């Protein structure tokens, strides 16, 4: 039973040690510790230790004069592979006025809010490929605040530059990182302006430049009126409206009014001032409203996913379903305290006051800035194919008219590149001159919400961490990306233009992701601990096996005796002479490890054989053999001694006399038998 228990403990110890990753302990500066998130409610309910991210959150003051602060929430993976450690992504949601906590808790962040305030894990989280920072902006959005709201896109850029300065003062080790801005929807206006502001800062400020590498905009509201023109053909092509619809004529009239505004804006595209037609959004916005009304019968189409329905007139405003759990979670007082909020605002997904104030009437639509961006960084525009409000048709429409890199649109409008992720066809790609368009299959307005693992591979596309393969049968080009753990060595060169794909075949071998050195050292220590435990168990087992024991079996027709039998073994019968007593005392003073060493090597303290042997009996015995000192002559083959308590002990000479008497008695008996 003892051995069984010891083996059970050993197995449990080994299993637990190997299953648990090394616990990450933050040892950063005090300036960062102020923003460290340590006691987030619900965090340990469902997450494994290696799934819990390193988190920082809080409100950074921007302008003391108007009491403006931006709230940020940063996620970092302590166990991320080395190649992904020098990369920071700043994520923005849209609106205007919608919190980036949508992105953190429903899209690309590592946490998912579940029923009852528990947190689950998002296997497609982007934080495993980069540090990712979610920012509530502009002021008044989410947990950010100010005395006065802003209304123009150049203000968004200015505020973000102040935030970046403050952020890198707290995290200076990230200043040399590759920087990306990513977001969705109205972030299609924010991000180009922010990127343009960073380029200006790098050129003119005289300060250390930010290492901006690219932008990723999902289902972006980049060219608003051009996007609105796509609604009617999108509905018709997907069978959402038919020509016999009673609202058909009214909708066509609305489309024509919007088209006139777009044509006028195109005529003044190169003007240095904003054309009023280009920021007159009302007539074009009305197209979607009429289409939703025309398809409503108590319910209407979800404008963010045309496969779903919603109550009228919400038509998608109650989506996504996770929102019902996210809202109470971010209003919980313990959560607010864990996020280090000094100025507590009641969290709302989207702020109507921010949206109403942010008119952007004096700002060019962000589509005007894309050509300059492509001259300096990578621009990736990705669209979920089930979205209506910022659909694929609208994005491709303004790209067809846009001039960048010396040409207008993609030179080959008909040819697409297949996007393969984890051996599945997940979309198609167009890429030329630092501009990449990606259509993502089976995804809504919030691509990462629907296909989280696929969405993380967007980072591989912008960093060129993919294999380019040309099919010999069809001459079709594919970009092949992989799940985390199977990756391609990163390359610094920009993506290959699709115009050159027909003559280029790249097949790059993949490699398993390597474990960080610190983790390797920890694993070695764990292995050593396991070896010591196993060695200790073996020592205990050996000690147990060599413990004195005896088995006396009755043989033949032996008659039971009431007499007490005394059995003695060799390792119990040391002669207690003076030298032996000293040896015994020395043995008692030995340490555990030294004793174990003697046990393993089979040697005693004095160098003799200490293995258990049966004791040869002595020619003379005392009555209580357990205290006896006599050792019998070694020539006697008996292995052990059994003596009755009342047995008479005889001398050696007396023993021979008894034998002679027995022989004489036997002869006399034989003679008597013969004579009878």
From TrEMBL:
| PANTHER family assigned | PHEROMONE-PROCESSING CARBOXYPEPTIDASE KEX1, SERINE PROTEASE FAMILY S10 SERINE CARBOXYPEPTIDASE
Annotated region Disordered: where? 490-516, 645-676
Where exactly are the transmembrane stretches of this chain?
Answer: 524-544
Write the signal peptide boundaries. Answer: 1-19
**Could you confirm whether the keyword Hydrolase appears in this record?**
yes
Q: Which organism is it from?
A: [Candida] subhashii
What protein does this entry describe?
KEX1
Residue ranges under compositional bias (Low complexity)?
Answer: 492-510, 667-676
Out of the domains of life, which is the source? Eukaryota
GO terms for biological process? proteolysis
Q: Which Pfam families match?
A: Peptidase_S10
């Amino acid at each position: 039973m003892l051995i069984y228990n010891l083996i059970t403990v050993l197995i449990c110890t080994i299993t637990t040690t190997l299953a648990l990753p090394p616990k990450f302990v933050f040892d950063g500066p005090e300036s960062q510790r102020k923003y460290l998130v340590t006691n987030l409610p619900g965090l340990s309910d469902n997450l494994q230790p290696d799934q819990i991210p390193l988190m920082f959150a809080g409100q950074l003051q921007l302008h003391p004069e108007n009491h403006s602060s931006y709230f940020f929430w940063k996620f970092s993976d302590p166990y991320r592979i080395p190649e992904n450690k020098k990369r920071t992504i700043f994520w923005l949601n849209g609106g205007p006025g919608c919190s980036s906590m949508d992105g953190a808790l429903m899209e690309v962040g590592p946490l998912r809010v579940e029923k009852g305030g528990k947190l689950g894990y998002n296997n497609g989280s982007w934080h495993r490929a980069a540090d990712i920072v979610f920012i509530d902006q502009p002021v008044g959005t989410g947990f950010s605040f100010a005395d006065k709201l802003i209304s123009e896109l150049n203000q968004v850029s200015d505020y973000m530059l102040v935030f970046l300065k403050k952020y890198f003062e707290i995290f200076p080790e990230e200043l040399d990182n590759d920087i990306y801005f990513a977001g969705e929807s109205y972030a299609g206006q924010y991000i180009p302006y922010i990127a343009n502001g960073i380029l200006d800062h790098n050129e003119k400020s005289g300060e250390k430049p930010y290492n901006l590498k690219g932008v990723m905009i999902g289902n972006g509201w980049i060219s608003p009126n051009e996007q609105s023109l796509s609604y009617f053909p999108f509905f018709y092509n997907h069978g959402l409206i038919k020509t016999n619809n009673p609202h058909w004529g009214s909708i066509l009239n609305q489309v024509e009014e919007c088209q006139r505004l777009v044509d006028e804006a195109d005529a003044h595209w190169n003007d240095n001032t904003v054309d009023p037609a280009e920021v007159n959004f009302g007539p074009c916005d009305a197209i979607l409203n009429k289409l939703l009304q025309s398809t409503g019968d108590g319910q209407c189409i979800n404008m963010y996913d045309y496969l779903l329905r919603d109550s009228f007139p919400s038509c998608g405003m109650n989506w996504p379903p996770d929102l019902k759990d996210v809202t109470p979670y971010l209003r919980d007082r313990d959560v607010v305290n864990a996020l280090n909020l000094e100025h507590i605002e009641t969290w709302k997904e989207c702020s109507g006051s921010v949206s109403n104030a942010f008119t952007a009437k004096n700002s060019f639509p962000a589509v005007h800035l894309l050509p300059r961006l492509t001259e300096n960084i990578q621009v990736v525009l990705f669209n979920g194919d089930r979205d209506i409000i910022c659909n694929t048709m609208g994005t491709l429409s303004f790209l067809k008219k846009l001039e960048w890199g010396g040409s207008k649109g993609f030179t080959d409008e008909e040819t697409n590149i297949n996007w393969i992720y984890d051996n599945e066809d997940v979309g198609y790609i167009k890429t030329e001159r630092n501009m990449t368009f990606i259509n993502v299959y089976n995804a809504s307005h919030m691509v990462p919400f629907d296909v989280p693992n696929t969405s993380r591979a967007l980072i591989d596309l912008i960093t060129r961490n993919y294999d380019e393969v040309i099919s010999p049968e069809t001459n079709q080009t594919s970009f092949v990306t992989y799940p985390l753990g199977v990756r391609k060595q990163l390359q610094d060169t920009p993506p290959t233009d699709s115009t050159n794909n027909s003559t280029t075949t790249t097949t790059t071998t993949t490699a398993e992701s390597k474990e960080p050195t610190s983790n390797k050292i920890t694993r070695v220590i764990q292995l050593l601990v396991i070896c010591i435990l196993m060695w200790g168990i073996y020592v205990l087992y050996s000690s147990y096996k060599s413990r004195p024991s005896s088995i006396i079996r009755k043989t033949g027709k032996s008659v039971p005796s009431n007499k007490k039998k005394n059995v003695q073994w060799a390792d119990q019968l040391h002669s207690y002479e003076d030298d032996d007593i000293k040896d015994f005392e020395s043995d008692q003073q030995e340490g555990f490890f030294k004793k174990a060493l003697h046990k393993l090597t089979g040697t005693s303290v004095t160098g003799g054989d200490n293995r258990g042997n049966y004791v040869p009996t002595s020619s003379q015995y005392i009555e209580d053999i357990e205290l006896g000192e006599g050792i019998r002559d070694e020539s006697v083959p008996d292995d052990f001694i059994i003596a009755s308590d009342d047995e008479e002990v005889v001398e050696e000479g007396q023993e021979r006399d008894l034998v002679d008497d027995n022989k004489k008695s036997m002869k006399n008996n034989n003679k008597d038998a013969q004579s009878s």
